[in-house]
TrEMBL record:
MF term (GO), any: oxidoreductase activity, acting on paired donors, with incorporation or reduction of molecular oxygen
Keyword Oxidoreductase: yes
Keywords of this entry: Monooxygenase, Oxidoreductase
Protein name: Alkane monooxygenase
Organism: Pseudonocardia sulfidoxydans NBRC 16205
Gene3D superfamilies attached to this UniProt entry: Luciferase-like domain
Length: 351
């Protein structure tokens, strides 16, 4: 099984966005060294906590600093762009790093004011057309507009070796059938909506149709918030910055571990961070050994082909060590090396 990372470029209090972006680019180099399969940059608008507003320039710079790891967007928020511009930009990235570019497509709101500022047409009412936008992006990338289509003659791929891998990202299950129907890979944000993990993946599998646009069989990336340390107590405490951001407000830099320790109440600190009885908490923690025991049954019963890791750590040393230990935990899963002694999770208990 593959393991990957999604990078939000969290901003440390007092450090600023320049430092966060540089740390994010260095993390791509670390991820390649640690054996991660792909490294995606997120897109968040008008936030003080994250520095990654546009994945494309980060992907371009990271492609110069790495040689093997796949690089991509997690995700391009397609509701803010024209499909043509997205296809063109990511084909340029494909030309820069042939065979290494992923185009993850999603949708999200940055709030009414910023959503309005991001729109090109500010006169009419916003239109919910994500499904047709994804289809149009795929049409450009694969020169797949049929006879009589107004864009039939448009060929953005001329002179470019290959095309990016296209993924549909979702956290509610609504995009599962779209991804399956187009034969694309599906990345589910289980860290955002763990209760929908099982139903969304099942819907994707049931709707999957093999096409020339993606993999030949259902391919699922499961995104989880995972942190690791050399002992269980520290690993659990590393979940506290994400909890503080979630419970005490997101409109600020990501709290340090010391800040989160001071801000959170005892009840929030004690919330579970272990996958137990099929229940996936918003943040997962452990040592490499305990993480394998938690995640191997989850991978087996969801049929995920890849786990994508997200974290909210800003301390460089803690972050680097956590990602190193997470790689140690995930690398053997699916190879029969670990976890086979664990009792299976009943499918009805998969959230």
């Amino acid at each position: 099984m593959r393991y990957s990372l999604v990078e939000l470029a969290p901003v440390t209090p007092g450090a600023g966005k320049t430092a966060a972006l540089e740390q994010a680019l260095g993390a791509a180099e670390d991820a390649e060294r640690l054996g991660y399969h792909r490294f995606w940059f997120a897109e968040h608008h008008h936030t003080t906590g994250y520095a990654a507003q546009d994945p494309a320039p980060l992907i371009a710079i990271a492609s110069r600093r790495t040689s093997r790891i796949r690089l991509g967007s997690g995700a391009v928020l397609l509701n803010h762009y024209s499909p043509y511009s997205v296809a063109e930009r990511y084909l340029m990235l494909q030309a820069l790093a042939p065979g290494r570019i992923d185009l993850g497509l999603g949708r999200s709101s940055a709030g009414p004011l910023v959503d309005h500022a991001l729109r090109r047409d500010r006169q009419g009412a916003p239109v919910e057309d994500f499904f047709s936008q994804v289809e149009e992006v795929v049409g450009y990338l694969h020169h797949a507009f049929g006879p009589g289509h107004p864009y039939e003659s448009v060929d953005l791929t001329h002179g470019i070796d290959g095309v990016p891998e296209v993924w549909v990202l979702g956290s509610s299950g609504g995009s599962a059938a779209l991804a399956g129907g187009l034969g694309l890979g599906y990345a589910f944000g289980s860290h955002i909506n763990p209760a929908m993990t099982g139903p969304a993946i099942e819907r994707y599998r049931q709707s999957f149709t093999t096409t020339r646009f993606g993999p030949q069989e259902p391919t699922v990336v499961l995104t989880l918030n995972i942190v690791a340390a050399d002992d269980e107590e520290l690993a659990h405490r590393l979940t506290w910055p994400a909890r503080a951001l979630r419970t005490l407000g997101r409109e600020r830099p990501v709290p340090t571990l010391a800040q989160a320790t001071a801000e959170l109440d005892a009840t929030t600190k004690a919330e579970p961070s272990v996958v137990r009885d099929g229940v996936v908490p918003p943040q997962i923690s452990g040592t490499p050994e305990s993480l394998r025991a938690q995640l191997e049954p989850l991978v087996r019963d969801t049929g995920a082909t890849e786990i994508m890791v997200q974290d909210m750590l800003t301390d460089p040393a803690l972050r680097r060590r956590s990602r190193e230990l997470v790689a140690q935990a995930l690398a053997p899963i699916g190879a029969g090396a670990v976890g086979t002694h664990q009792p299976p999770i009943h499918p009805s208990k998969i959230p």
